[in-house]
Specification:
This protein is α+β, with helices and mostly antiparallel strands. The chain has helices spanning 54-66, 75-92, 146-150, 152-156, 202-223, 235-244, 268-278, 280-286, 294-303; strands at residues 67-72, 114-121, 126-134, 167-175, 193-195, 198-200, 228-233, 249-250, 255-256, 260-267. Strands 1, 2, 3, 4, 7, 8, 9 and 10 form an eight-stranded mixed β-sheet that branches. It starts with 53 loop residues before the first helix and ends in an 11-residue tail after the last helix.
């Protein structure tokens, strides 16, 4: 059975109890989602337009001041991504064996079937984070998604809840050590940050960094015609995500992979609806200041419904 490449996704395999409760991880909502055919769905009702509150504006402004996140598909950019993954997964955490990843680059057979994103710290232009979305292979069992193959409960879900051919797997979600509190503390950081000339508590900055990667997960998934995402994550991190409004749905019992891990899945549009209603300040970051509306998500997903996601690998 193929090993899931996501046991370390979104955080430390053994997170410490003193991790800040505001730390973000990744996302996609999960209510038992609809099928990918949305032709008979009622019109989308979006959150009424409103002026941004001070909290909304502060979060969005801080993210835009500090971070830039974009999809990476050029050889030089991907080389940086693979070297950052080696640094995090092989050197800093020991999650993967350096001997299996020569030349200081962490890669695997799923990279060619994935779309990758990089998070850049604007004050230095440095790549500080990365994530990928593994696209489904309709000809393979479980759509060739490692998490689905490793977690029987995910594989057993009916297509109405997890349409494998329209599901991507979120993996290799990592942030470099300078944004983590101590060596070995997972994806959370402690670094002196200046925003508009004033010092900012780094515990407020780390979630902004991860929100940039989350935004790219949504954009990649919708652009590839995916309706759902899945992953295997640490249960403690699942609780953190839910507090932030990223309502992944636990699926079945935990599985053993470098410790107990919880299979999860979610419908991206439904998660965005929830954020718009309940966490507008998070919605504003993930939606790029409202540029990516729920109706846009629905339209883009419908436009790509007949497209083979793997044909959209850049």
């Amino acid at each position: 059975m193929a090993k899931p490449d996501c046991g370390y996704i979104f955080g430390d395999p053994t997170p410490t109890s003193d991790q800040p409760s505001s730390s973000a991880t990744t996302s996609d909502v999960c209510d038992a989602g609809p099928s990918t055919d949305h032709s008979d769905q009622p019109a989308v009702t979006e959150r009424p337009k409103r002026g941004k509150s001070n909290a909304d504006r502060a979060l969005l402004d801080m993210y835009n001041e500090l971070f830039d996140c974009r999809e990476i598909d050029d050889p030089e950019g991907l080389d940086q991504v693979f070297r950052l993954r080696y640094q995090v997964y092989c050197e800093e955490t020991g999650f993967l064996d350096p001997a299996d990843n020569p030349n200081g680059r962490e890669t695997d057979l799923f990279d060619d079937r994935s779309r990758h994103a990089g998070l850049f710290y604007k004050p230095t232009g440095r790549l500080i984070g990365t994530v990928r979305v593994v696209l489904p292979d309709a000809s393979a069992p479980g759509a060739g998604l490692p998490a689905v193959l490793h977690a029987p409960a995910l594989k057993a879900l009916p297509a109405s809840r997890l349409p494998h051919h329209r599901t991507g797997e979120i993996s290799r979600f990592a942030v470099c050590s300078s944004f983590r509190r101590r060596r070995g503390d997972g994806l959370y950081g402690r670094e002196t940050i200046l925003v508009n000339g004033r010092a900012v508590d780094p515990r407020r900055v780390v979630p902004h960094a991860t929100l940039g990667l989350i935004k790219m997960i949504f954009q990649i998934a919708i652009d590839a015609g995916l309706s759902h995402t899945c992953a295997i994550i640490d249960p403690a991190l699942l609780r953190m995500m839910r507090r932030l409004g990223f309502l992944y749905e636990p699926v079945g019992p935990t599985v053993e992979f470098h410790g107990p891990r919880q299979p999860v899945c979610g419908d991206g549009v439904e998660m965005m609806r929830h954020l718009a209603d309940e966490r507008p300040e998070i919605f504003d970051v993930v939606s790029d200041g409202g540029k990516l509306s729920i109706s846009d998500l629905m339209a883009r997903r419908a436009a790509n419904v007949d497209q083979d996601p793997t044909a959209l690998v850049k």
